[in-house]
TrEMBL record:
Belongs to the glycosyl hydrolase 5 (cellulase A) family. Coiled coil: none annotated. Its EC number is 3.2.1.4. The keyword Metal-binding does not apply. It catalyses: Endohydrolysis of (1->4)-beta-D-glucosidic linkages in cellulose, lichenin and cereal beta-D-glucans. SUPFAM superfamilies: (Trans)glycosidases, Cellulose-binding domain. GO terms for biological process: cellulose catabolic process. The keyword S-adenosyl-L-methionine does not apply. It is an enzyme of class 3 (hydrolase). This is Endoglucanase EG-II. The lineage of its organism: Eukaryota, Fungi, Dikarya, Ascomycota, Pezizomycotina. It comes from Coniochaeta pulveracea. PROSITE patterns: CBM1_1 (PS00562), CBM1_2 (PS51164).
Amino acid sequence: MPMASLVTLALLAGNAFAQTQTLWGQCGGQGWSGATNCASGSCCSTRNPWYAQCTPGAGCGGGVGSTMTTTSVAAKATTSSVSTPAQTSTTSTASASASTSRVRFAGVNLAGFDFGCGTDGTCDTSGIYPPVRNFPPDYNHPDGAGQMRHFYNDDNMNIFRLPVGWQYLVNNNLGGTLDATNFGYYDQLVQDCLSTGAYCIVDIHNYARWNGAIIGQGGPTNDQFVSVWKQLAQKYASEPRIWFSIMNEPHDIPNISTWAATVQAVVTAIRKAGATSQFISLPGNNWQSAAALVSDGSAAALSKVKNPDGTTTNLIFDVHRYLDSDNSGTHTECVTNNIDDSFAPLATWLRQNKRQAIVTETGGGNTASCEQYLCQQIEFLNQNSDVFLGYVGWAAGSFDDTYELVETPIWNGNGWTDRALVKACLAR
Ligand SMILES: *[C@@H]1O[C@H](CO)[C@@H](O)[C@H](O)[C@H]1NC(C)=O
């Protein structure tokens, strides 16, 4: 009965001013006409012009005045840390950062050079559909350059992941040289990315395989895999904003220690090719699942991978996580924010082991459930920005309306319009 009475009261109150939004619920943004006050213990944080959300925070919840923008809280935290003694400032900065910090990197994938690649590591190179406008034969491909400029300029994104099939890079010649024509087209997308000012992730999208067989474990030799990375590292050695993503979504790897040795060989080759300081992604087994990184032994095995100087500087764990019922990223409805089962335990492990991770694939449909859960997940990453470097949505580029998880913006003749999920959660 008390529950029913409360519901009745809320209904009778019947206007936005009297309503209080629950933790994680929407509390503002362009076009929002619902509740703007947050429940006790939470603040209304502005994520971007289109979306504000009630997020946990001490001393800001409930009643009029609970609406605080991220910017104003951050400014306050900075002031107090400057004007208080060292001991106090450590405490206040730490508590402030829990609710106001932001990950360093935010962006999306620009898919297309990976089209035709299957999870068994086959890549039908005739299936690619690059987001490079002047790509032959039809010269009418999606405008990846324009998309990235829009995301960078209008949505404050600063990282783009550029998946490509291994077979395409070497024109199906395992262990061979980068194909001048094919790599030339891929490099156009890379240069389009670099010219925005963003970081650009070069991602070989082969599931630890070449044509069905696993690298270093029955398939290509480590040397054949090292060969392609050595050439790529030579090309981009002097570009600090290139991020080397060794491999997309290894899965069903028989021996994780052997896989870690393969990853080590690539890291050593990239560094020795002259890319001495750029970020390199370390991919674990189980499709890089953020939930499995520690439990399946990937974290322990990959922790042993080192730079030639013995450090782990800029060697970053690279994880993926979707929010649909089977975590496959194939459904338009989301059912979880992945915090309790994935990101909270992973944050603890990363902190204990003094390491960092980036989420290079996450996303969902352009639906209310995905807006709710993905925004919650991203808010958690922001709150734990000491161990999470950023997030990259899947995916823009060559995807169109027919794709469940489309994040490709729409060109209306003189500007770009974002998809609902990008507006709500990924833009900032
Ligand atoms: C994995 O490979 C290593 C050698 O790289 C070997 O010592 C170890 O026994 C293997 N583990 C399993 C479970 O086969």
